[in-house]
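Task: sequence design from structure.
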């Protein structure tokens, strides 16, 4: 009997699914999310002292460690309800075959002990391979006892585990996200931990500040601010807790969207001092200013390739609607990356091979498009859509591990900061007070 051929729509569906899977494959490979997830159990740490501060510190530590490991994107974290009832505080106290057996079925187990003593927080942490009954990691921490330090120590232990099991890539638990918030009445630069905790105001200028970009050494923030003479690129020293001079960013015209070179030696930004907004470069002190682009139509939002430090991606309106382009840092070898629609806000992956950006591919009157976050492979120009049917999404920024992206999402006129894995999964809202936008993830 002759086999029936598939209907055309079925063939199209198979092709579409195949293309989608291929897209996911290259995204997972390029963002270090492609390996099989390790099944990891994180035990609650054993209280090792009767100090009255120990229970609260332990609760903060346990919750933070579990959250950090769950957010890492490389583990299948065993639910606490599936763990053995025992609370091992040392290698001598753990029965690893019990943790390797169902229902936990753990491949790796993180455990340890914690105590408050004479104003100090003392933590002993271990990571063991439950299958081979061997130690993978052992750490000891001795810090001043406080809730903030309990979180910090948990971040450090989580990052040590992620570094050990995640292919030698540093974790992001101690990284920061800088953003714009209007919650005090004016748009100021704020900062928070990677998971949305510890949100605090950085600048107090009483004006409008936009587009914060943290330097590679985490010492300074470059941003655009509305001053008495118009928009200027300003520089805030986190070490000094005040503004520092950046003379090249305040000369004539509107100056916007700064970006640091990967070695911290230069700052690129958009300036209209010569007419149209063009991409300019200054050294880190605001001197040695020179123009890179010279074409009719606005050129804005530069971002440096962090791997090579020799390419810049940016947004240009030279053909009408804004599109993403890349060029060498001397302005040569210009390439257009997006093929239409409305594309803005590029951010370069730490490996230098991928871009993420905001794109409305069907922009125009009556078009059913949406402003979503995409990721694109530079060499092939293959792209994958990460957000779907959820507000207006813009200003993505890569985490230094290349596995996470932070972005802004506007719903019902309110904008908030969200994070997600680089394949679009595990989307989580980080801010909830006021309007929050333009996030930038620290380099380390």
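Answer:
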């Amino acid at each position: 009997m002759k086999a029936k051929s598939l209907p055309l729509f079925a063939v199209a569906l198979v092709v579409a699914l195949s293309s989608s899977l291929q897209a996911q494959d290259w995204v997972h490979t390029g963002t270090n999310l492609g390996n099989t997830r390790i099944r990891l159990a994180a035990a609650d740490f054993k209280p090792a002292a009767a100090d009255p501060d120990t229970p609260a510190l332990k609760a903060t530590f346990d919750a933070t460690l579990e959250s950090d490991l769950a957010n890492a994107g490389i583990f299948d974290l065993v639910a606490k309800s599936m763990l053995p009832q025992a609370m091992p505080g040392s290698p001598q106290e753990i029965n690893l075959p019990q943790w390797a057996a169902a229902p936990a079925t753990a491949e790796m187990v993180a455990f340890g002990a914690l105590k408050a003593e004479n104003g100090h927080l003392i933590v002993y942490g271990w990571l063991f391979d439950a299958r081979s009954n061997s130690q993978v990691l052992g750490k000891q921490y001795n810090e001043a006892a406080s809730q903030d330090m309990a979180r910090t120590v948990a971040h450090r232990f989580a990052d040590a585990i992620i570094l050990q099991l995640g292919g030698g890539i540093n974790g992001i638990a101690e990284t920061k996200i800088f953003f714009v918030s209007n919650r005090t009445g004016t748009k100021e630069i704020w900062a928070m931990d990677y998971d949305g905790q510890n949100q605090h105001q950085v600048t107090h200028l009483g004006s409008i500040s936009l587009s914060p970009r943290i330097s590679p050494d985490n010492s300074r923030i470059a941003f655009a601010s509305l001053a008495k003479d118009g928009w200027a690129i300003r520089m805030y020293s986190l070490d000094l807790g005040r503004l520092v001079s950046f003379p090249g960013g305040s000369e004539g015209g509107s100056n916007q969207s700064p970006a640091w070179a990967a070695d911290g030696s230069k700052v690129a930004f958009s300036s209209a001092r010569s007419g149209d907004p063009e991409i300019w470069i200054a050294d880190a002190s605001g001197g040695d200013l020179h123009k890179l682009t010279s074409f009719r139509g606005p050129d804005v939002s530069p971002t440096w390739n962090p791997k090579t430090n020799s390419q810049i991606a940016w947004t240009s309106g030279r053909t009408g609607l804004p599109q993403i382009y890349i060029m060498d840092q001397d302005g040569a070898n210009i390439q257009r990356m997006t093929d239409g629609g409305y594309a803005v806000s590029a951010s370069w992956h730490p490996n230098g091979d991928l871009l993420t950006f905001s794109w409305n591919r069907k922009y125009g009157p009556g078009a059913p498009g949406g402003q979503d976050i995409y990721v694109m492979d530079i060499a092939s120009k293959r792209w994958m859509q990460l957000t779907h049917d959820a507000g207006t999404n813009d200003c993505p920024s890569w985490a230094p591990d290349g596995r996470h992206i932070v972005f802004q999402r506007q719903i019902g006129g309110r904008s908030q900061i969200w994070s997600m894995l680089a394949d679009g999964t595990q989307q989580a809202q980080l801010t909830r007070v006021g309007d929050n936008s333009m996030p930038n993830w620290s380099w380390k």
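Residues 8-30 form the longest helix (23 residues).
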